[in-house]
Design brief:
Layout (H helix, E strand, L loop, with lengths): L6 E3 L14 E3 L19 H9 L10 H6 L5 H72 L11
Antiparallel strand pairs: 1-2
Amino acid sequence: MAAPRPPRVVPGEASESDSEPELLVGTAGEAPGAGLKVPGEASETEEEEEEEQQRPKTPPVLAEEPAAVWGGGPSLLQQRLREGTGRLRGAVGSALRQSYGSAARSLGGLGGALGRAQVTAAAAAHCLRLARRDLRAVADTIDIVTACHLLPDIRGQL
């Protein structure tokens, strides 16, 4: 006959109360999982909480640390990431330079055209002022001639 198998606790979430059923799996040749801590399980006593607080906390592992510890260079993945990052930065920089360069050229062309339009408008305004002044002078001369009664009345035959 086979010996009865002792139950084994399956890792997972701890039950919230004693009324919830626990899932036990039997294993051959293993001791029961008494005192076994399951990741994510809430501590059941204050002693467990104190033990966790007294344990030294390990510092977080940095991505560059293994290469520095083993004395080797950066890993192949890190090299590829650096190369890809460099290519991406170059492509983004090139795209920005191209777009800003074309925008600057367009603005420069518009600025030149605007400057030429201003000069032309100023010249046209000056010419209109001169023509108006000349027309006023002619109108004043005509008024003087028509208002003068000293001139003989000349009528021509047509």
